[in-house]
Amino acid sequence: MSRSRAEEYFRPSAEANELGSKTFGFVLALGATAPVLALSGVLGLADESSHSAVMLAVAAAFAVFASTVLRRRPWPSELRRVHTLNGAVVALATLGLVSTMIYLLTGAFNRFDDALYESVAGVSTSSLTVLADPSVLSDAQLIWRSGTQWLGGLLGLSLGVGLLPFLGGSRELADPRDRRTVSQALASRPVAALKRVLSIYSLVTVVVAAALFAAGMGAIDGTAHALSSVSTGGFSTEVGSVGSYNSVAIELATIVVMAGAGSSVALVWMLWRRQFSDTRRSFELRVVALVTVVATSWVLVARPNSGHGFWRDLLDSLFTVVSLGTTTGHHVDDWASWQPGLVMLLLILLAIGGMAGSVAGGLRWIRAVTLVSFVWRELQRQLHPNSVRVVKVGQSAISEASVDRIHAQLVFVSSACACGAILLGFAGLGVVEALSLALSALSTAGPGVSDSGTIVNASELSRGARLVLMPMMFAGRVFLYPALVFVGSLWFSGERSISARSRRVRPSQPAKVRR
Questions:
Q1: How wide is the angle at C-alpha 393 spanned by C-alphas 390 and 397, nearest 5°?
Q2: Among candidates 111, 268, 241, which has minimal Cα distance to 175?
Q3: DSSP assignment of 184-209, as one string?
C-alpha cells in the first residue's frame, strides 16, 4: 500500500458525528458493563462484604451516564471500516480499564499491574489468570471476574458476526452455507444482526447457568462458569477448574457448552429456526466433528492410564480436546505432562481454534481448510500450468480476495507470535514456555506449557512476561486486524498533526528576486 493510499484509508470519515466512533465505543462499553456489575452486586449480597454495594453504585452511575448519551443517538449514519474497528478497540480497552477500577475499588488486588493484567485476561477471554487461588475472592468479585470474559466474548462476537461482514470482510467464510454470510442469516442490517447476536448470547447464557445448577453446581459457581464458558474464557472459581468438582454431569454439560460456543452462531440461529438440513450441510461443522473424534481417540490411546476406567478416561480426553479446540481453557487433567506428541496435537488444535462466526479465538477451521485447499491448487498448477483452478471449501468456491485476506492474517499471526516468543524469552522464559504462551495468548486460550511439562499460570510469570502477554491477548480478542488498523490510524493522525504544527511554525522565506 502506497503512502497516499494508506493516508486515505486511515483518514477520518466526514460521516462521523461530533462524538466520533471512539467516544461512541467508550460510552457503549460503559453501558454494557452496567448490567453485569448489577448482576455481580445482586448475587454477592449474601456475602458479608461491601463489594456488592460498590458494584451496584458503579452500575447505576454507568447506566445513567450511558443512557443519557445514547439517547442522543450518537452512532454514525454509515458504517466505515476504520471508524468501526477503532470504536471496537476503544470499547475493549474501556472494558479493561473499568474492570481494573472495579478490582482496585473492591480490594481484589492491591497492585495496579496485577489488576490490569487480570482485567486484560478477562476481556480477551483468556484463562491465563494471575490468581493462584480464585476462591480468595468474594462472590461478587467472582461473578464480575467471569463477567469480564462474557463482555469480551460479546464484543468479539458482535464485531466478527454483526459488523465485519457488512464492512467487506470474508463473507464466504462467515456462514456455513454457500455464498451467504452470517449477517444475512441473522439479519440484513447491522443493527438487527447485533440485536439478534445479543439475544442469542444472553439466552444461551441463562440456559447454561440453569443446566450447570441442575448438574450440581451452586448458584455462584454455576453463574460464574456459565459466563466464562459461553464466552470461551475459561475462568473458574476453583484452583483445579472444572476438574475440582469431580462430576460426570458437570463435565458433560461443560463439554456441550464449550462445543456450542466454538460453533458458528449461524448454526445456532439455523437450529433455532429448525433449518436442520442447512446445518447438516455445513462443511466446516463436518470437519470439526471429524477432527474432534480423531483427536479424542488419539488422546485416549496415548494418554497415561488414570486408573479410573475406560469411560472416565474417554470423558476426560473429550473434555480436553473440546476445551483447547475451542480456546476455552478449562481443564480436568494436567494435559501438559502427557506424551509430547499429544501436547503438540493439543497446541495445534488451540492455534486453529473454533469455527468462523463463533466466540472462540484462533485462526478458525474454515481458514485452515482454505489454506490447505490453496496449497493443493498450487501443487496442481505446478503439474498443469495452463489449468484454471479455484480454491474450494467443500462445494463452495472461495474468492481470491478472501484467500488474500487469509494469507495476510496468517502472516500477522505468525509475525506477532514470533515477536512475542522472542520477548518472552528475553523475559526469562524457556523456549517451550515462550512459544506455547505466545501462541496461546494470540488464540485467547490461556494455558501454556512449561519446560518441565506442567500447565503454566500467570501467577508464576514475572511482571515483564505479563507485560508482553497483555497486548498479545488484547490483539487476539479483536482478531488482530482491528488492532493493527487502530495503530495505523493513530500513526497517520500523529504524522498529520506534526506536519500541521511544523507548517504553522515554519518561518516564511523571503522571495527571490531575479536580477
A1: 40
A2: 268
A3: HHH-SSHHHHHHHHHHHHHHHHHHHH
Distance, in Å, from the CA atom of 491 to the CA atom of 45, rounded to the nearest integer, reads: 46
Task: Give the C-alpha separation, 97 to 25, whole Å.
Answer: 13
* C-alpha span between 513 and 500 (Å, rounded): 28
Which residues are CB-neighbours of 299 under 8 A, at least 6 positions away?
Answer: 317, 320, 321, 338, 342, 345, 346
pLDDT, mean of residues 390-411 = 83
Q: What is the DSSP string of 468-498?
A: HHHHHHHHHHTTSHHHHHHHHHHHHHHHHHH
Q: What is the distance, to the nearest Å, from the Cα of residue 382 to the centroid of all Cα atoms in its chain? A: 38
- Cell for 373? 485447499
Grid coordinates representing 78 are 454509515
d(CA 242, CA 176): 31
Torsions phi, psi for 53 (to 5 deg): -65, -40
Model-level pTM? Answer: 0.84
* pLDDT digit string, tens, across residues 78-115: 556 667 777 788 888 999 999 999 999 999 999 999 99
Pairing outcome for strands 455-456 and 448-449: antiparallel
The answer to whether 165 and 174 have CB atoms below 8 angstroms apart is: yes
What residue spans of 363-462 are helical by DSSP H?
A: 365-383, 400-426, 431-442
Collapsing DSSP to helix, strand or coil, 386 comes out as: coil
Mean pLDDT for the stretch of residues 45-63: 89
Residues facing 391 on adjacent strands: 398
For the chain, report the end-to-end CA distance as a whole number of angstroms: 46
329 in Cβ contact with 233 (< 8 Å): yes
Grid cell in block for residue 342: 499429544
Torsion angle defined by CA atoms of residues 422, 423, 429 and 434, in that order, rounded to the nearest 10 degrees: -50
CB 454 within 8 A of CB 437: no
d(C-alpha 345, C-alpha 115), whole Å = 33
Query: Do 243 and 187 touch, CB atoms closer than 8 A?
Result: no
Decide: helix, strand or coil at residue 456. Answer: strand
